[in-house]
Amino acid sequence: MKSMTRKIGQAHPFKPRSALRLCFGGALASITVSAWAQAEAPSAASAASAPVAASEAAPAPVQAEALPSIVVVGTTPLLGVGTPLEKVPANVQTIRGRDIDAQHPQTISDYFAANVVSVDINDAQGNGSQADINYRGFTASPLLGTPQGLSVFLDGVRVNEPFGDVVNWDLIPQAAINMIQIVPGSNPTFGLNTLGGAVVVTTKNGRSNPGGNVEASFGSFGRKTAQIEQGGVIGSNLDYYFTANVTNDNGWAEHNASKLRQAFGKLRYTDADTTISLSMGAADNTLDGSQTIPTSFLDNRKQAYTYPDTNENQVGYLTLSGDHYFNPNVQLSGNLYYRHYRNKNTSSNVNDEFGTVEDNGDIDDIQATNDQSVIVTDSYGGSLQLTLLNKLFGRDNQLVLGAAGDFANSHFTQASQDAFFTDSRATVGIGGFNPQTDAKTRNQNWGIYFENTFSFNEQWSMTLAGRYNWSKAVIADESGVQPLLDGNHTFSRFNPAIGFNWNPTPAFTAYATYNEGMRSPTAIELACADPAAPCSLPNDFIADPPLKPVISKTFEVGARGRLGNATTWSAAIYSTNLTDDIQFVSSQGAASTLGYFQNVGKTRRQGLELAGRTQYGPVGIAASYSYVNATYRSTWTESAGSNSSADDDGNITVHSGDRIPGIPANTVKVRLDYAATPKWNIGTNLSYRGSIFARGDENNQDTNGKIPGYFLIDLDTTYNVTKQLQVFATVKNLLNKKYSTFGILGENFFNGPNHTFNGADTVNEQFLGLGAPRGAWVGMRYAWK
Fold first, then answer.
1. What is the 8-class DSSP label of residue 296?
2. Which residues form the signal peptide (predicted)?
3. How many other CB atoms are found less than 10 A from the CB of residue 662?
4. β-bridge mates for residue 726, sequence order
5. Do 198 and 186 form a contact (C-beta atoms < 8 A)?
6. Which of 154, 403, 528, 776 is the most buried (most CB within 10 A)?
7. CA atoms of 112 and 121, how far apart (whole Å)
8. What is the SS3 assignment for 102?
9. Above 90 in pLDDT, residue 427?
10. What is the pLDDT of residues 599-610, one digit of tens each?
């Protein structure tokens, strides 16, 4: 998606052309039309309050005879003209960059966890910048091998990495975010991986963000940040924007430090009919993880199970995008992009073969392995979209036609080194690294889509949409010793959508929708799908039996509205059913990296969302509740030797109705803002997340039971010393709660004195991904025009 400029007086097809004003710069544009009711005055605290739904977007500034803003949502990867929210059949949520800035979160995932409806996070890797984001029970994760159910876009470019569809949240430039839009359901126009929703990020531009600032902060765990922003206009047609930041963080636990370096820039040309934008960005990040730790290690919550475990992420990207109005009713938009991504992963692992008898009769006494994998991906592609605003049977109609092509070449190498453990569980290598895998993959994804919104009258409208996806993955062995790795896989499907909206008054909207989506098996899943030849996740590739694509089908009904000038609300009920869902099945217990991917039949995520926001003088309140019932709908057998209910062969039977691990049923979030004075704002986030089952307990029968839920309180405050100087402070986990966001069943090899290696006396335990203890940070920002 992209910023949009349009001539004054060009009308949206659904509203009168007179007295129309567009505010540009994101996935969401505000339109004020003089034919509508009275304006809503902004409150003193509204800038710091987090929206919980798109219907709760902050109003335009009050002017003489100004009127309420109309939210326009991009419901396709390229914004184009957009669609008024009143005609969007989905519980869309929007987050402005200024809302994120007001709370000064450490990461985007921190903000999501505290503010966004139906979102929770887990810390499976033990690093805050590598958290999984779960929305409605679907995941966008940086961990290779995790089934990805959300598509993520940055300025219209899909940033699910082609190799594994992972999402590296640390590579998205947080300071450059103008708006994030979360579109729920299986909206087919967003293409592959949109099983449970799409996360659409748009960046700032210099015309909407003139001036600059520098910011610095420091505090707990040795965390220090520095950031600069600058935007402006050159002449009458050019504008520019640039930001760069540096973060050094020692980490709250041992061996989970982070170093982040990000930069982003944009140059735009705009005139009455045309916008052309060239943006580029880069990041160079080193993220250490402390992994999950067994419950017997909780005497010291800061220790790592084994180490080192490091992800080095580098990216550079270039995006050229533009749109042009041939006349007020015809717009053409498009983009071209190139992206270079490199990931180097170093993992310390217990040797899966320790204690087994080798072919020569010897006992394998190698304690550990150091695994190194490198992924280098060059991806490129483009999209083209035509928007036609016309009349159909004398009624307003908007037709969007689009096509997209995405291509990627990836090179994957992996090597393994024998090692032993020190008393502190660090691995020390024995000899050199031995190559295990050398493979190249080629991904081709084509998509053709349409979306048509027809207004029967002022109260009723219908949306029809669909997309045909064609996906091809070619895998080639480069080592010459793994011929079974070679494979050529093609998947295709047409996914439809239909929705209805009813707007009896400007203050109320009800809707119902049905849509379908698709996820193609990734290269790593296709090359690790043989139960007879399990591979080491995420390192080895072995063979490629066929896997089926995952198909999602979503029903949703909901409503949203406004009460008076200060209160907004939204509600939704949904059900998403997956066919041929894919899961990693461990061959030696849930915590083992050895296993394979398989289609496990049907799964379902269904639930309820309630959200509201209001303003009482200087106090702003936003609250939400979400319920997610995520269950398996098929019966299948899994190897889970660490599960106490496993049979003599180490297998468990998962039945229809068993809950999917890692997905909490209940989450509650409250955001309070108090404008103590015109210069001073105090905010707090109260969040509750319910209990979850551990991975490996897919049958919900393990004696360890669930990982308990938790309640957190975060604080933030800002004080504007002058118009240019602002100071701020944040406190995370005010009550210093000890909690866990993730769990997995596994075999603990460290039962010797002081948790040293003892492979002869292993114990099955519940391993936990721990949340961070209390931390506090202070900072200041100096701005100029």
1. G
2. 1-37
3. 24
4. 720, 781
5. no
6. 528
7. 8
8. helix
9. yes
10. 888 999 999 999
Residue 724 has which token pair? 């240019």
Contact between 654 and 636 (Cβ < 8 Å): yes
Residue with tokens 């979850």: 692
C-alpha separations of 177 from 29, 205, 343, 692, 726 in Å: 15, 10, 24, 32, 20
* Alpha-carbon span 576 to 294, nearest angstrom: 33
Whole-angstrom Cα distance, residue 179 to residue 153? 12
- CATH number for 20-784 (one of 3.40.50.10860, 3.40.50.300, 2.40.170.20, 1.10.418.10): it is 2.40.170.20
Domain map (residue ranges) of the chain? 20-784
The H or E element spanning position 537 is none
Answer left, alpha or beta for residue 601, where phi above 0 means left and psi between -120 and 50 means alpha: left
pLDDT of residue 267: 98
The span from the CA of 447 to the CA of 404, in Å, is 5
Q: Give the whole-angstrom CA distance, residue 629 versus residue 625.
A: 14
Closest of 374, 376, 384, 294 to residue 335, by C-alpha: 384
Q: What confidence category does residue 482 fall into, taking pLDDT thresholds of 50, 70 and 90?
A: confident
Query: Alpha-carbon distance 126 to 737, whole Å?
Result: 17
- Please report, for residues 161, 363, 410, 650, the alpha-carbon distance to residue 438 in angstroms, rounded to integers and kept in the order given: 19, 29, 11, 32
Question: Ramachandran region of residue 210, left (φ > 0), alpha (ψ -120 to 50) or beta?
Answer: beta
Q: Which two tokens stand for residue 265?
A: 């820039």
CB atoms within 10 A of CB 504: 11
Distance CA 9, CA 384 (A): 25
**26 pLDDT above the threshold of 50:** no
Provide the residue type at 516 as one letter: E
Contact 123, 113 (CB under 8 A): no
Please state the separation of Cα 159 from the chain's center in Å.
10
Locate the DSSP E strands across 236-296: 238-249, 258-270, 274-288, 293-294
Give the Å distances, CA to CA, from 63 to 7, 42, 68, 567, 754: 21, 11, 11, 20, 69
Q: Nearest to residue 215, comparing CAs of 271, 175, 165?
A: 175
User: pTM score, two decimals?
Assistant: 0.89
Mean pLDDT of 18-45: 33
Split at pLDDT 50, 70, 90, the class of 760 is confident
Cβ neighbours of 102 (radius 10 Å): 21
